[in-house]
Amino acid sequence: MPTGNLFDLTGSLALVTGGSYGIGFAIASAFAAYGARIAFNDINQDLVDKGLAAYRQAGIDALGYVCDVTDEPAVQNLIAQIEKDSGFIDILVNNAGIIKRIPMIEMSAADFRQVVDVDLNAPFIVSKAVIPAMIARGGGKIINICSMMSELGRETVSAYAAAKGGLKMLTRNIASEYGQYNIQCNGIGPGYIETPQTAPLRAPDHPFNRFIIGKTPAARWGTTDDLVGPAVFLASRASDFVNGHILYVDGGILAYIGKQP
Ligand code: NAP
Ligand code: GCO
Fold first, then answer.
1. What is the pLDDT of residues 9-64, one digit of tens each?
2. Closest ligand 2 atom to Cα of 150
3. Architecture of domain 13-193+224-255
4. How far is Cα 94 from Cα 168, in angstroms, rounded to an integer?
5. Rg for the chain (alpha carbons), in Å?
6. Using a 6 Å cutoff on CB, does residue 197 contact ligand 2?
7. 181 is catalytic
8. Atom of ligand 2 nearest to the CA of 164
9. Which ligand has the minimum distance to the alpha carbon of residue 201?
10. Which of 3, 118, 206, 215 lies in the 20 to 30 Å Cα band around 221?
11. Extents of the domains making up the chain
């Protein structure tokens, strides 16, 4: 029988990409509440500064770095700097992401590539930079932030769905290739969550608002608070034999065929 608090993250260092606000900020803050030290990056200094202020306000002494996660040399420098500043990374959350809502036949190849670059290529780049030290140190945790669109499509999000579907399989492949080194790589698939990214869909007169509440058995939008328990679970000893799993935190959307008209 395991001893102690299985969810205790004391002594761990977590890197959360795109962690200035939203889901990344909420997950990092929960990790800190369970004892972890926090490092995060974002794409510009303004966002990093806002993030640092928000962490400080929450009583969290986070380390913030400017880094574009699609830039492999910059990511390699980021990891080296974090290791110099605070030590080796025990928990990686590939959270940074973008979405472009454009009908596919109207979407430029450049736009498609940009979404895939951030949402799929970047988790590859950052994981590739972090895994060698995890192997050398006897293990680690990688959590990829997937999506309903890892399983479902919908109009206007072709690039995002392709990327998040790929991220599901990258998660499974990292689990397959590095599980032997005590590295657990899992995904969290949030449902529809109240963050700036979904703000356009939650406008009071937006039909999508009513639609998604009807498609969600919990009959509400999710909040970032709904994600933190699953994230702490996947970052902790409590999930040491969970690998390659996408934990959907969606209020039941994926289980539900939809209300009879
Ligand atoms: P978000 O707006 O997607 O936040 C993502 C963060 O990543 C932002 O700070 C963003 O900066 C940053 N970022 C974007 N491109 C980057 C790059 N190249 N390098 C470094 N940082 C970059 O907000 P969110 O809703 O909290 O989403 C977080 C993650 O959850 C994303 O992967 C998203 O796809 C996923 N997700 C969200 C929902 C939802 O309903 N909200 C549901 C499922 C999955 P900028 O502000 O400059 O863009
Ligand atoms: C959309 C939304 C979704 C959510 C999330 C659902 O336009 O459909 O942005 O993609 O962000 O990914 O899990």
1. 999 999 999 999 999 999 999 999 999 999 999 999 999 999 999 999 999 999 99
2. 13
3. 3-Layer(aba) Sandwich (3.40)
4. 12
5. 18
6. yes
7. no
8. 12
9. 2
10. 118
11. 13-193+224-255
